[in-house]
Amino acid sequence: MTSKLKDKLATGIFYSIALIICAILASIIGYVLVQGVPHISWDFLTKPSESFSAGGGIGPQLFNSFYLLFLTLLISVPLALGAAIYLAEYAKNNWITKGVRLMVEVLSSLPSIVVGLFGFLVFVIYFGWSFSILSGALALTLFNLPILVRVMEESLKSVSASQREAGLALGLTRWETVCFVIVPTALPGIITGVILSAGRVFGEAAALIYTAGQNAPSLNFANFNIFSQESPWNIMRPAETLAVHIWKVNSEGVVPDAAAISSGTAAILIIGILLFNLIARIVGKYVYRWMTSS
Questions:
Q1: Is residue 88 one of the residues assigned to a domain?
Q2: pLDDT one-digit tens code per residue, 125-161
Q3: 104 is a domain residue
Q4: Residue 154 vs residues 76, 83, 157, 248, 278: alpha-carbon distances, Å
């Protein structure tokens, strides 16, 4: 067998493996969408869920998912950016830095159920915050922070050394160089990482079952009293999300149309995650072009 023939054979095998993986993923996504999209309607997206009767919606769950995502990113993005700047620009190559990177690697590989149990023990029981949006957001922060730190650190490291030297040569301090040269240059990668991590958080279930709870009270958007359980802005109320709702509906199966609700909710979740990935690519390319043209 000649070298060219071996090369073509190996290339064909790799292409076949890639096509098989893509076909499996496409079939799973297609099956979920085909089963769920027919059940999606405006009433389904806005009405509250039902406990025992048919015809319920996912309005509160949809709002809770986005609200939890917003609070999680509000907490985790500044912390991750600060840690990434320290590791990429200031940290020396010693045992402290190696220990921090090791902890980041360990945390990023933890199963979400472990993060959920930790959040349950610390936030729900020890601090006494019960099942709440705050407990869920902090648990998701622990789940999301290591990945954000790694993505942001790699984005900052990808900035060429010549740009750092140019900033220092212009008389900027090291901190000013980081703020006005390095971070803006690394912005496309940072934004892409944030949006991709948002998609991962949006579909999380295990960490929220034990922290945000499995209850979705009816929301009154005209109620701005943040201490009321009916106020959507109260961070101390329980908040069932879309992913938790799918698990609850399939595990309990009390409502007559449980299969339709589960399929519709799963389709909305898949569409949301696909949109997050699509937006990440579009925004990353747009910001990169804007940074390179300016």
A1: yes
A2: 999 888 889 999 999 998 888 888 888 888 888 888 8
A3: yes
A4: 17, 12, 5, 38, 21
Closest CA to 242 of 288, 202, 273, 190: 202
d(CA 136, CA 42): 27
Q: Which helix (H) or strand (E) holds 28?
A: helix 3-36
State the total domains in the chain.
1
Helix axes of 3-36 and 258-293: crossing angle, nearest 10 degrees:
130
In the block, residue with structure tokens 């389904």: 44
Asked whether the whole model's pTM tops 0.90, one would answer: no
User: pLDDT tens for residues 227-273?
Assistant: 677 778 888 888 888 888 888 888 776 778 888 888 888 899 888 88
Per the CB < 8 A criterion, the answer to whether 231 and 224 are in contact is yes
CATH number at residue 217: 1.10.3720.10
What range defines the domain where residue 111 resides?
40-293
Q: Are 146 and 107 in contact (CB under 8 A)?
A: yes
At residue 56, what is the residue type?
Answer: G
